[in-house]
Amino acid sequence: MVQDGTNxxxxxxxxxxxxxxxAVLESLSLGIPEGKVTAIVGPNACGKSTLLRALARLTPVTxxxxxxxxxxxxxxxxxxxxxxxxILPQSPLAPEGLTVLDLVRRGRTPYQSALRQWSRxxxxxxxxxxxxxxxxxxxxxMLATLSGGQRQRAWIAMAxxxxxxxxxxxxxxxxxxLPHQIELLALVRQLNRDTGRTVxxxxxxxxxxxxxxxxxxxxxxxxxxxxxxxxxxVTAKMTQDIFALxxxxxxxxxxxxxxxxxx
Length: 263
Prior knowledge:
six-stranded mixed beta sheet; Rossmann fold; Siderophore_ABC-ATPase; ATP binding; cell membrane; single chain
């Protein structure tokens, strides 16, 4: 668990999740530190994406409880939760024919109802999200014409337009080349610093996770094995235990973060 005293609005308390014939998470407890970027790492099929989906109540837990602001998240109204927490899944899909602006406007859905139609507040939230992600000049472009990195920025803009304090990203760098991975993670880091948003994201690249996160969580076998600052988590012992990888860990000569060099 995160040390007592750390402010965590979103918590998993001894949660378990099972799929037919397989337990994915087992009595897992975790707090997402407020105002920080948390990276969740681990081998394939260890439960990273399942954990993120459980935190967002997209996947029901079979035991334990996820709480948001001290209350069980599954007891809260969906619209209220959607105004507090946004999640970007691993491979989001959108209908054909959408422009960037069409997609980003969908982030305002939790605020719409029969009694509340589109407002100036909605327009301002969309404009702000486009500006933060550098997409104002591309708002009229079709999603299908964008590069992979631009498309990911558009999806993040949609999540930002939702105007939540908590942002969950499931493998946001999937399918991106290294320059676009770094660009996207730098954007996430900057958003955290500029807006104070709490971010939790699943990443495969442990070196990028160590560079861009304040807090790291390493899963194996459906349980939290390590967590803390990257300098505490990323060690030769951890990589051997979690990934069965022999390595040397050095300080990145440019940024000073731990950097894994496989043996």
